[in-house]
Amino acid sequence: MLSCRPVGMGLVMKIRAILRAAIACATTVVVVAGCSTMTQGRALSMLNDPFRVGDLPATNGPSGIRANAPAPNGTVVNTDNGSIDKLSLLSVNDIEDYWKSVYSQSLKGTFLPVGKLVSYDSNSPSSPIVCHNDTYKLVNAFFTSRCNLIAWDRTVFMAVAQRYFGDMSVTGVLAHEFGHALQQMAKLVTRSDPTIVREQQADCFAGVYLYWVAAGKSSRFTLSTADGLDHVLAGIITTRDPVQDADTVNDDEHGTALDRISAFQMGFVTGASACAGINKQEIAQRRGDLPTALQADPNGDTGTGEVPIDEDTLSTLMELLGKVFSPKNPPTLSYKAAGCPDAKPSPPASYCPATNTIVVDLPGLTQLGKVSSESEDTLPQGDDTALSVVMSRYALAVQHERNLPMQSPWTALRTACLTGVVHRKMAEPIETPSQKELLLTAGDLDEAVAGLLTNHMVASDADGTSVPAGFTRIAAFRGGVGGNMDVCYSRYPA
Description:
By secondary structure, this protein is α/β, with parallel strands linked by helices.
């Protein structure tokens, strides 16, 4: 996440080798306890309700195929007649039925069903050529307008998605691919549009459809808005872009974790019109000055961007947070656990309002900031996973100085929002008394967003209590990443 260096020594950023195409980097640690229809008037303010996901209640519950769902209808070329292909066919049936019924309400052109569905085994040397694509070792799913077809790897890509994220992750993948078909129908993109515009639109269209499912409108599937949707979001995070060197030209950019989830949430909350409005300018405005690529130091070396989670780093972080928030009475940092009369401990970092102290369990925080390995099948984790938790406890101190409640769901979301503000501020150097700085680096936001799904701490109150839905936690953080601190207080009033 962050680089720590004396001012003036050049930016060091991290590199994490992550394969976007291979969902085999899926997570086993997601805490699991969606996309709009074309109905007008669903207010964005619904995102600010701790107990709602858009305008839907935040609930745990069943997600997947309904017990009374109709049988799949149609043909899958090269099928093995297994469960993945049956689930995929049923998914396309549902996705097509939805878009056929609403297409003309928001999109131009004429609705056209996908002409062919193809399944393949990426492990097999005899896997077929699909519309000029060699599918042997092609761990992916794709739509091609040349042949008007959707194809998927049933053996690795879809099987791993289902194993780690459930049936609805398979449906979500196909909703994304069908989004590419919608682009062709509505002529939303041209050959000159970069890949990221196409991919962000497709993520958005997947959100539109999955809202309809989460709203209970599908006859084939259900999707709970808390644990079920958390799994879908985790799948989106694992298929984010790898962090690349600034000298690397990425013609196949799909977006960071925050990019992809932001696009998905736009569709879920606002509907298809938001997806049609995604272009290069919209994406650039949404990203602002957040780092998306690696930089080299003055010696030409590209570092990892990771800093040690130790007392020196935390001391620098506290200085920086003081500059960002400018509290009249800054909180103190302690490494010794002590009783707190007005808040419960929330290790590895706790805030005690009575003493205005942030208490850190350093070994626990260090473990939380341990960089995840590709071979561990986990969501991204690193120094920002840990440091963002400390940022959130400082954000509680800032709220306490304003005499705001320390224990409430709105406190939890306000905390996530303010932590997002810190991330935006740290995209640029901030001078501190010690002349040291911590800078946001490429990949840090991926770690923070993943933490909002797994440990929830960044979106928690002084007792460590969070809100039910990862969607809502991430939306609050994303609101703060816009950089306006006042927004956090207006969106989440006491």
